[in-house]
């Protein structure tokens, strides 16, 4: 029904009263807004930041001694909380990054949720993550997927603690107000077998079990062993001779990203000059599997070594330089930006001069 004259009445107030009237009626005038809604280029709240392994790991170890994991707490996780985000436990506005610590004999109980997660193993052995009945063994450098709404629990049957990086699209799914969560009726879900998903792709390239392609709503491959990743990087480096070579973890049935809402990649840096400076929309979290070097982010130098984690905000200019051969695991929100036609990159003709060096806490 159209609005007719009877529904409206004239308000005759001065400017100050008008402003007061707007505020008390939950209205905001665009002309008086303090925040810049449309900056000419992205103005992220996410700060470039770095967490040192030498700081984080001892704290995780101590948590392992004094904090138990039972129903309720569920996981011993230290979130990399970006100080630009006003106390939120997020690494960037779209990505969750954290360190998870699981001691020998411990088990993190089974549950599922709509945010998708990846586990990237940093240290330890003798752990498997069961994903919908498939017990995925975990070794350093391996990537394990726990796609949205899959049941997952983590079990350490070994004699040493394990530490891995948790990456989730949690901040994005929270923004979309679409989080659902459910506990499994059992602490540990029944196991159908070990590393089952790898049978799909390792038996014969280009051949999958008939019907597998149509039934999958997420990547049917759940475990990406480091040995394969390393071999692929080795070959790429040998073929191209490039300082920086990268592989993307994909869903083998579609060629799309292994997790639809964030990209997973591994980059290998060879000691040489600084790489070309690039900026792109969207944020990335880097996990240094091994090696050392530095990255310059918007003119600030970040020195990194094995086990460190750092984040690059949207549209920041980034280049890298390795001191020794280095493997960096990276997650980014790029698939979301691509899907929304918001993905932009720019290659800068020269390196940003280094104006400051980041002093880690
Ligand atoms: C979660 O389920 C795990 O399953 C880790 O290991 C980190 C952070 C927020 C919400 C759920 C896990 C998480 C999480």
Describe it:
The chain has helices at 15-24, 53-66, 170-175, 199-202, 212-215, 226-240, 334-339; strands at residues 49-51, 77-79, 96-102, 107-113, 117-123, 127-131, 134-138, 143-146, 152-156, 162-168, 181-183, 193-194, 223-224, 244-248, 263-269, 278-280, 284-297, 300-305, 309-312, 318-332, 345-347, 356-357. It is α+β, with helices and mostly antiparallel strands and 361 residues long. It has one domain: Jelly Rolls. The strands form 4 sheets. Strands 1, 14, 15, 17, 18, 19, 20 and 22 form an 8-stranded mixed β-sheet that branches. It has a 6-stranded antiparallel β-sheet with strand order 2-3-10-5-8-13. The structure holds 1-hydroxynaphthalene-2-carboxylic acid. Residues 75, 77, 96, 98, 100, 108, 113, 117, 152, 154, 166, 168, 170 line the site of 1-hydroxynaphthalene-2-carboxylic acid.
| Largest sheet geometry | 8 strands, mixed
The count of DSSP E runs of length 2 or more, i.e. the number of strands, is 22
What hetero molecules are bound to the protein chains? 1-hydroxynaphthalene-2-carboxylic acid
Please compute the radius of gyration using only Cα atoms: 23 Å
Summarize the structure.
The chain is of the alpha+beta class and 361 residues long. 16% of the residues lie in helices and 33% in strands.
Features:
single chain, 361 residues, alpha+beta, Jelly Rolls, six-stranded antiparallel sheet, 7 helices, 22 strands, 33% strand, binds 1-hydroxynaphthalene-2-carboxylic acid
């Amino acid at each position: 029904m159209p609005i007719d004259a009877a529904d409206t009445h004239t308000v005759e107030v001065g400017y100050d009263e008008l402003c007061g009237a707007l505020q008390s009626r939950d209205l905001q005038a665009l002309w008086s807004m303090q925040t810049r809604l449309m900056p000419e280029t992205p103005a992220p709240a996410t700060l470039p930041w770095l967490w040192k392994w030498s700081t984080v790991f001892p704290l995780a170890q101590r948590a392992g001694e004094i904090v138990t994991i039972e129903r309720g707490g569920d996981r011993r996780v230290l979130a990399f909380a970006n100080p630009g985000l006003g106390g939120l436990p997020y690494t960037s506005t779209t990505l969750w990054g954290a360190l998870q610590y699981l001691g020998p004999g411990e088990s993190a109980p089974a549950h599922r949720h709509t945010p998708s997660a990846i586990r990237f193993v940093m240290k330890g052995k003798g752990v498997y993550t069961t994903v919908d009945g498939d017990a995925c063994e975990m070794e350093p450098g391996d990537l394990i997927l726990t796609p949205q709404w899959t049941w997952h629990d983590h079990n350490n049957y070994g004699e040493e603690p394990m530490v891995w990086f948790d990456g989730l699209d949690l901040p994005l799914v929270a923004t979309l107000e679409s989080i659902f969560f459910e506990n499994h009726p059992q602490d540990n879900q029944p196991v159908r077998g070990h590393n089952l998903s790898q049978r799909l792709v390792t038996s014969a390239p280009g051949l999958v079990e008939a019907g597998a392609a149509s039934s999958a709503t997420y990547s049917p491959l759940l475990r990406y062993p480091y040995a394969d990743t390393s071999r692929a990087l080795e070959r790429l480096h040998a073929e191209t001779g490039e300082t920086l070579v990268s592989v993307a973890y994909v869903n083998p049935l579609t060629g799309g990203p292994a997790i639809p809402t964030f990209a997973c990649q591994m980059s290998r840096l060879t000691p040489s000059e600084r790489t070309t400076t690039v900026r792109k929309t969207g944020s990335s979290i880097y996990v240094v599997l091994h090696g050392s070097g530095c990255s310059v982010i918007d003119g600030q130098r970040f020195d990194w070594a094995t086990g460190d984690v750092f984040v690059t905000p949207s549209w920041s200019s980034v280049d890298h330089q390795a001191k020794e051969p280095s493997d960096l695991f990276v997650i980014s929100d790029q698939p979301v930006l691509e899907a929304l036609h918001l993905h932009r990159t720019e290659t800068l003709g020269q390196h940003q001069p280094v104006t400051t060096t980041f002093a880690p806490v």
